[in-house]
Amino acid sequence: xxxxxxxxxxxxxxxxxxxxxxxxxxxxxxVSDYLxxxxxxxxxxxxxxxxxIRKHLSNIAKIEELLNLTIEISKVDEECFEVxxxxxGELSDHLTLRETEKxxxxxxxxxxxxxxxxxxxxxxxxxxxxxxxxxxxxxxPSQSTLKGRLxxxxxxxxxxxxxxxxxxEFKSDLPEVS
Length: 178
Fold this sequence. Notes:
single chain; mainly alpha; disordered N terminus
């Protein structure tokens, strides 16, 4: 019975949030107010955003609007920090490399906000997405511009003092970076 109630609550939240998107009234204020009043709605919000992304993959203006909305909401509601990162992941999963390059400028333009509001908790997810894109680019030498842009973006996520690429047993042998 409890599981049924949770499923019903999730579906209700999903339909409510999706209704905001469908009626073009999904403003930062309306969505953040909804999330504040329905604290269990964050998963439904993320799923609704992903559905909107899939629905509007060819509409860069709509994608930019959704990205901006998710970043602004993550500023207001820190529990939603993962949603803009999920948007990036969703786009990189569904778009070709050429299309990803067209969309990537949106993430570069908002990189300061992503780093400030989303990356502290979602940095690993963001790094994983960028590394996966770089792996896809390894077989496509014609996309060297995107590869360089992704590397610069990745460098902004990892400070010079970060040793995440080294196994634990080697970290103690490395000199301190100052």
